[in-house]
Write a structure and sequence with these properties.
The protein has 109 residues and is of the alpha+beta class. 25% of the residues lie in helices and 25% in strands. The chain has a four-stranded antiparallel beta sheet with strand order 3-2-1-4.
Length: 109
């Protein structure tokens, strides 16, 4: 029997997020139809770019945490592995201390 790998996210309704971020939203258009979209919550407002009512939302991080899709293989081969190698070499030369605030590494061709 196949393993049940379903994921059920709970819609937040009749409320607004408490933190800025990216959300999957259920959108009800003025003409009555609805759809899903991705929207930012910034300064107490939805950033949609069009007129519609948000009738429910789920934090994007919560949704992504429930799926396992990996990363596109071609990008991993052409960018991911070379970046990881360069990053590891950089860390050997410049290890982080407990007081470092930034861990930015620039990838160079």
């Amino acid at each position: 029997m196949a393993e049940d790998r379903s994921f059920q996210a709970m819609w937040q309704e009749k409320s607004e997020p408490t933190t800025p971020g990216e959300y999957i939203v259920a959108v009800r258009y003025p003409h009555g139809f609805g759809a899903y979209d991705v929207a930012s919550w910034v300064d107490g407002q939805w950033q949609l770019g069009y007129s519609a009512e948000i009738v429910g939302w789920i934090p994007l991080a919560e949704l992504l945490g429930g799926i396992d899709v990996g990363w596109p293989e071609q990008d991993e081969e052409s960018f991911g592995k070379p970046f990881r190698k360069q990053f590891e070499e950089h860390r050997k030369e410049s290890p982080l201390s407990d007081t470092d605030d930034d861990d930015f590494v620039e990838f160079k061709d």
